[in-house]
Design brief:
single chain; mainly alpha; 4 helices; Ribbon-helix-helix protein CopG domain-containing protein
């Protein structure tokens, strides 16, 4: 029997306009709403990310973060 899909946590989060556009686009293509799309991504994190690419992208993001906050 499949697990019941319940959104039990509500998170107030901030994201860039680009990130939100990509989330909305992904959700629409997948036939999900934004919360369901985020749940899918985080529940399947290790299979939807490339660990080598992720660490490289994270270093780049962190290097630019302070400048982007201004």
């Amino acid at each position: 029997m499949p697990k019941r899909f319940r959104l039990t946590r509500r998170v107030n989060l901030g994201m860039t306009e680009e990130a939100y556009r990509r989330l909305r686009s992904f959700a629409q293509e997948a036939g999900l709403d934004e919360g369901e799309a985020l749940s899918f991504l985080f529940e399947n994190w290790s299979s939807v990310t490339n660990e080598d690419s992720l660490s490289h992208r994270l270093r780049l993001f962190n290097a630019e973060l302070e400048a982007r906050k201004r």
